Amino acid sequence: MDYHLTPPRPAAGAPALAGLHREAERLVADDQALSMVMPQDRRDCSVQQHMVAMELIASNLIEGLTAAHSRETAAFAALQDARETLIAAESADPNEWIDALCRAHGRLAAAGVVDGGPAGGFRREDVAVAHHVAPPAAAVAGLMGDWAAAYGRTPASTAAAVLDALCAHHRLLFIHPFRDGNGRIARLDLEVRLQAAGLHCGATWSLSAGLLRAEARYRAALAQADAPRRGDLDGRGALSEAGLVDYCEAMLDLIHREITRRYSRAAKRARPDQEAPREEAPWNCG
User: Fold this and answer.
1) pLDDT digit string (tens) for 112-135?
2) How far apart are the first and last CA of the chain?
3) In 10 A of CB 15, how many CB atoms?
C-alpha cells in the first residue's frame, strides 16, 4: 500500500475553505484582542514563564503523565529544552526543520522522558496507536520529506498560516515518525508554528491547556483526519478532505474557546470593581 499525505490542506476549490478562513480570521482577531486587554504587567517575563509551564505540563498530561511527574521530574525541563530547540530553528530552511524535530526528540530521550530509541531518530518498527495504523517504518523518511516540503512555504495570510499549522500538526501525528513522544513533539511544533503566524500562543494563552480541557474532542478530531478518501466527491488525495476539514473546524473551535476563556478572565482582572480571579493551575484544566 502506498502512503501519501494528500491533501496537505483543503483544496482551493473546497466549499468549506472560505468558512475555515473566516473562522481562522476571527480567531486571529480575538488573539490580538486578548493581547491588548492584558495589562502590561501581565505580559512580563514571569507571566510568560507561567504560560510556558502551563503549556508543557498540560502537554504531558495529555500523554497520561501525572501532574506531580510533570512538575517534579526531568519531564518539564526536557520539554522546555525541546521547545527552545524548535524556537531557535523557527526560520530554518524547511528541510532543516526535520533535523530540529529530531534534535528536540533527542532532548526528550536523553532525559528519559520518552521511551525507546533511537533517540532523535525515526522509528524502526511498525506501530498502531488506538485505531490509527501508522505508515510502515520504511516509509517514514520519505513522508517526512513530503511533510517538510508541504508545510515549509510561507502562506499568503495569517489565517492561511494558522490553517497550515493545524494541517501540519495532524499530518505529523499521522506519520508518527518516532517510537515515542510524537504527541508532545507535534504540539511543540504546532505551538511554534502558531507563534510564527503571529499568535500569542504560549504568551497569553496555552494551546495544550485548551486541548487538555477537551481531550476527547481533540483525539476525535485527529481520528477524523486519519480517514481515507471516501469517494469521488471527497477531494483528490489519499486521505479524506472532508475529514481534514472537520478536523480543522474542531481545532479552530477548541483554540478559540481557550482564547475566549482567557479573554474573559483578563477582562475581569482589568476591572477595578471585580475581584481578580484566581489563576488556574494547568493540571486543573477539567
Assistant:
1) 878 767 889 999 999 998 888 999
2) 41
3) 9
> 3-class SS at 56?
helix
Domains recognised in the chain with CATH numbers: 22-269 (1.10.3290.10)
- Report pLDDT for 66: 67
C-alpha cell belonging to residue 79: 520539554
Q: Please state, in angstroms and rounded to a whole number, the distance separating the CA atoms of residues 7 and 105.
A: 27
pLDDT digits (tens, 9 = 90+) for 11-44: 998 899 999 999 999 999 999 999 998 765 555 5
pLDDT tens digits, residue range 194-253?
999 999 998 899 999 999 999 999 999 999 999 999 888 888 889 999 999 999 999 999
155 is written with which cell numbers? 502562506
Residues 24, 56, 261, 243, CA torsion sign: positive
Largest Cα–Cα separation, the chain: 64
- At residue 202, φ and ψ (nearest 5 deg) are 85, -5
